[in-house]
Specification:
Layout (H helix, E strand, L loop, with lengths): L1 E7 L6 H16 L3 E7 L3 E2 L9 H11 L2 E3 L39 H4 L3 H29 L2 E10 L5 H15 L4 E8 L5 H13 L2 E4 L2 H10 L7 E3 L7 H5 L39 E5 L6 H4 L6 H17 L3 E5 L4 H15 L5 E3 L6 H9 L3 E4 L2 H9 L4 E4 L3 H9 L6 E2 L5 H4 L13 H19 L2
Parallel strand pairs: 1-2, 1-5, 2-4, 5-6, 6-7, 7-8, 9-10, 9-12, 10-11, 12-13, 13-14
Antiparallel strand pairs: 2-3
Length: 463
């Protein structure tokens, strides 16, 4: 059995990164039996100990995929029972704060904004030096066991004040030292890069046998940094398009079964299927999920600015508009502590009196996040990994503009018209959202093509 070292950030508090790891693991398993060693760029390898894996999920994953995995308990765990409760007399049933949910609002004060970039970079450098003592020996052993080293997926080729560049340098340098093939897999790339970050990231790119970025914008940026990478670099898609196969849910489009590659249902990490779309005359109100992000995250990733108070009021207006249109509204997050805190402190108080509106439990596992999404008929969200799994499940999905990566991926799936500008009042934009359960005709062919390309690329680089 061949072994693959898969390095990413699945232990990130944003559960979208855990989703990336699980869907990549599933894609690898669909191409044959492989042993997958998961290695977090910032935290190291997970122990192959059953105490770190919920027994039920471990058995389901191994039985369904044939892949031997080393996983984190933050990515797995027994899946929740039905998380949404119907409101009584139209009143929302607001979720209580769970004991294990992370709830901490990111700072946005003047002191943080005034910290020089140079100081932040040197802080990251010294933190990385401290990680060396913890990570270098486990990494050396993991690379020694691997027949190939993958770095991905996720938005990794970015200069996070040297944090990711240093971590990627560590993995790439060890792969090169042991003469193991390196593949950068389904990563996002964005500038600006500092001079030193450029050196570290481009060194990794130049050693890599192949580079697959997840969108055309990332490809353009990377080739702008080094045109010589063009021969080995391709733009594909995000692995979360394989959410249905990973979680045992119906994929968008029945014709995928005849697309020439295995699709089918998987028993791995099952969550309940979404309710059938309400037909004309049905008494059930369509369920619309609102995936909310702390707008302070926009300060780090895009030129847009959205004050928390204004953002909370926008989501309140969105919930009111949808409730007035006959919908049940579900507010959810991707599990990041700052998103949870923003909902808890800003959005939840405004929505306590909104009819037919529920704040979902804050997810602590990827399965819980998928459970929230699967329960919806329509999804309107800002986080990329709330939108992509919803689209993969064939749910009408609308993305709130912020980071170019979301806008680019929607455009590549022929869904540019389903982007919502938060600068326009919610009663105007949300009031025109389609509730007929339909996606544009051009979407499904694009989805099928993207998934086929992912499947073929994984097969081409596996040992």
């Amino acid at each position: 059995m061949k072994t693959v070292l898969l390095a990413g950030v699945p232990q990130s508090p944003n559960l979208g990164d855990g989703l990336i790891a699980l869907t990549l693991n599933r894609l690898i398993a669909m191409r044959g039996t492989h042993r997958v060693i998961h290695f977090d760029l910032l935290h190291g390898q997970w122990e192959a100990d059953e105490s770190h894996i919920a027994a039920a999920d471990s058995a389901r994953l191994q039985a369904a995929s044939g892949a031997e995995t080393f996983s984190s308990s933050s990515m797995t765990g027994s899946l929740p029972k039905r998380t949404r409760e119907e409101g009584t007399a139209g009143r929302p049933q607001l979720a209580d704060i769970q004991a294990n949910a992370r709830i901490r609002l990111n700072a946005s004060g003047a002191s943080k904004r005034m910290t020089p970039d140079t100081l932040r970079r040197w802080k990251a450098y010294w933190l990385d030096k401290r990680r060396n003592a913890k990570l270098n020996e486990p990494l050396r052993k993991a690379v020694a066991q691997a027949d190939a080293v993958f770095i991905g997926g996720g938005h990794l080729l970015i200069d996070t004040y040297w944090t990711f560049p240093l971590a990627i340098r560590r993995i790439a340098a060890e792969a090169k030292r042991q003469r193991k093939p390196l593949h950068l897999l389904l990563v996002g790339a964005r500038g600006p890069w500092s001079r030193q970050a450029s050196r570290w990231l481009l060194d990794a790119c130049r050693y890599a046998a192949t580079i697959a970025v997840r969108d055309e914008d990332s490809l353009s940026f990377l080739l702008g940094m080094d045109p010589s990478l063009a021969a080995k670099t391709v733009a594909l898609a995000d692995p979360a398009l394989y959410t249905p196969e990973t979680f045992g849910l119906p994929a968008a489009g029945a014709q995928q079964q005849q697309a020439g590659y295995p699709m089918g249902r998987s028993a791995a990490h099952p969550v309940k299927p979404s309710s059938a779309w309400p037909k004309g005359g049905a008494s059930r109100r369509p369920v619309v999920g609102l995936g909310i992000m702390d707008p302070n995250e926009m300060n780090r990733h895009c030129p847009y600015r959205w004050e928390r108070e204004a953002c909370a009021a926008w989501w309140q207006s969105a919930a009111e508009t949808l409730a007035a249109r006959g919908c049940e509204v579900r507010l959810f997050t991707n599990g990041a502590a700052t998103d949870n805190a923003f909902v808890e402190q800003y959005v939840k108080p405004l929505c306590e009196e909104v009819q037919h509106t529920t704040v979902m439990r804050y997810p602590t596992t990827v399965g819980q996040l998928m459970d929230s999404i699967a329960d919806c008929d329509v999804v309107i969200a800002q986080r990329l990994h709330a939108c992509i799994p919803a689209l993969a499940l064939g749910k009408p999905t609308y993305g709130i503009i912020w980071d170019r990566k979301l806008e680019n991926i929607f455009a590549e799936l022929n869904l540019a018209e389903q982007l919502i500008d938060f600068r326009i009042p919610a009663e105007r934009t949300i009031g025109s959202v389609g509730l007929d359960g339909l996606l544009p005709d051009a979407f499904l062919p694009a989805l099928e093509r993207k998934k086929r390309e992912l499947f073929e690329h994984i097969g081409s680089i596996l040992p």
